[in-house]
Amino acid sequence: MQLIQSNIAQDLIHEGLAHGADFVEVYVERTQNEALVFTNSRAEDTQSGTIFGIGIRLIHGHQALYGYTNSTEREELLRITRLLAARIGKTGAAPAPLNFERQAYPKIPVLPDRDVDAKYKLSFLKNIDTILRQDARTSQVVLNFIKKKQLVEVYNSDGIFATEERPYIRLAHQLVMKDGGLQSQAFFGPGAIGGWEFMEKLDTRENCENLLRQATTTLYAAPCPAGKMPVVIDNAFGGVIFHEACGHLLETTSVEKKASVFWDKMGEQIAHRSLSAVDDGTISGEWGSLSIDDEGMPTQKTKLIENGILRNFIADRLGEIKTGHKRTGSARRQSYKFAPASRMRNTFIERGPHEFSELIASVPSGLYAKKMGGGSVDPSTGQFNFSVQEAYLIKDGKITTPVKGATLIGTGPEVMTKISMVGKDLALMAGMCGSVSGSIPTTVGQPPIKVDEILVGGEA
Questions:
Q1: Helices marked H in 336-376 — which ranges?
Q2: Is 227 left (phi over 0), alpha (psi -120 to 50) or beta?
Q3: pTM here?
Q4: In degrees to the nearest 10, what's the CA dihedral of 442, 255, 411, 451?
Q5: Dihedral pair phi/psi, residue 14, rounded to 5°
Q6: Which of 101, 135, 270, 329 has the fewest other C-beta atoms within 10 Å?
Q7: Going by C-beta distance under 8 Å and a sequence separation of 6 or more, which residues neighbour residue 383?
Q8: Average pLDDT, stretch 159-180?
Q9: What is the pLDDT of residues 46-57, one digit of tens each?
């Protein structure tokens, strides 16, 4: 069953074209949301609901006009279209009759979207809480469970009609540990495109043991020394640095404004020759995967950097119009309330030739960042400041003393040139990314990497 009638979408597109638009798009969304917060050993907050809305976009030259509503009434939708068209201020030729052609595209495999009842979910979360609280130093456990099913339809003046159903599921674990005046935290937030089967495939006990180990290690760790030094950054969420400090600079959202230091570097060496990176929306079950983007274009695997050379940008329709760089199936938005923009999907540094032991052995004195935390980035320069949740000193090529309070400080363009070794063990991790089109599911990742030199902030 379609969310709106095709003839209504056709009327809106004809109206926009008749008033001078070069391109008209209608985006329709229905999303069922479920959220559960489990803390203090009980369900503290549960929410559920459905959002529905329609976004209308007109493009004229380099100008984009966007409006939205949750009404399906034809006259209201035409009124919004005319209000947008009035900003163009011209009349176009009478549009030809439009027959939508349903877009054919490969469906990205997803984990089965099976659901379970509330009692079973509470039992599942209670088990995690119980395991984590077996350590007397555990002060607080917060589990945030989210599940949503998003159905989107896209109609446009190219005659395209595309639709996709996207089931999302994620469980964020946060552990706080205390001992006297000491306190530490640990976090783990796996997510996927799929249903409850993803939860059941998680190794609950192993995940809890890793959280307890991380929190315990950090609780008693010595202060981290400061200064410039080589750093080995582990896989999975270690890729957040590439995502934030480099990935955003490759989106045409920043390239079109020349706000990215890479805007004119296509085909040039922007990273160490050991580094290759991709943005891949086609990976089965991954949190950031899509069959189509929010403009109805089939998603794809995009090689961003190859042996240090910039090969592609991350582009949406408007980005292609403004920069000339081809669309990559990367137009994304939080909901119908946002116009689409070029955004990352599953973005990661690709596997390299080295064993993890080789990376560590190559460092006479430095830092091993086993688990990265949050941070801040200036998107115009790539200047970043990231905390390290779990870190160890490296002495004479061996991992030694755990330390806390470490931060990694630098710029994306500089760090990319100093990644001299890339490991084999690629791992990905779910996250949320905020930008001009809202907050969206994205995946970060990498194998372990060695940065020859980076400024480490510390308390020692």
A1: 356-361
A2: left
A3: 0.94
A4: 60
A5: -60, -40
A6: 101
A7: 245, 377, 410, 411
A8: 96
A9: 999 999 999 999
